Protein: Serine/threonine-protein phosphatase 2A activator
Organism: Sarcophilus harrisii
Amino acid sequence: MAESGRQPPSDSLEETSPTTHNFMIPKKEINTVPDMGKWKRSQAYADYIGFILTLNEGVKGKKLTCEYKVSEPINKLVALLNTLDRWIDETPPMDQPSRFGNKAFRTWYAKLDQEAENLVATVVPSQMAAAVPEVALYLKESVGNPTRIDYGTGHEAAFAAFLCCLCKIGVLRVDDQIAIVFKVFNRYLEVMRKLQKTYRMEPAGSQGVWGLDDFQFLPFIWGSSQLIEHPNLEPRHFVDEKAVNENHKDYMFLECILFITEMKTGPFAEHSNQLWNISAVPSWSKVNQGLIRMYKAECLEKFPVIQHFKFGSLLPIQPVTSS
């Protein structure tokens, strides 16, 4: 698609005109369990889930190593994530008695807290500078909690919200879809895994052995979409070490499995029971549909996760306006 001219808006990737728009710092709106109804009826929920599903469709049947368009904003986002990665190297873990929750994470986080708006300003064109504080908040929320030194699916959702906002202000476009997942989100995952390992972060709101994974959810959704109609890899193969080792560079789902097996000891069926059960599902499209349902039920409809979500002008708490 040509760069010039506005692209037709898609459901969740439509643009907001930055000149007439009143940006605001997103804030907490879900304070009690009954508030969850507001979230499920909100424009934010509709746009967020629409964004996740648009990307799910975009990467269907594609390898991480396939060819796709990489725009300048995509490269700038990767550079931003590379900076976060470099800061980890510059902030080694501290010697401390407790094994988990290394306090050096707070030093690392303080740097992001200070620099987030400057980092986001490198991605957002100067004529849209007004959007930077609003968008930057989601970046700060996406790396874990500095008080508890934990990380979970709510933080991951904040990163997806960050990308969704960049689409809404027109920095990312419809034809960036594959690169959003394969280049940006994948790089984000690498940085988060490094944070989790380096600072021994606790899983936030983990359901332990009954959860899908201690830290992530979205790469399992998009990763299962990548594998739909694969000629020889079936869901049963992801518990096979050889299949994972040979294919993880092409498929996000298998990369997740590899990380789990590096981090956990003992039989897979014991430490990752939910995933073990999923390996019995006959097709990847069934796995994909099941994971989307599970994501809504276990993450998006759970108060402990959503109470931390922030709402602004781009992802508003107001009810959906039917167009």
Notes: The two ends are 26 Å apart (CA to CA). The first helix runs from residue 36 to 41. Confidence is low (pLDDT under 50) at residues 1-12. The chain is about 50% helix and 0% strand.
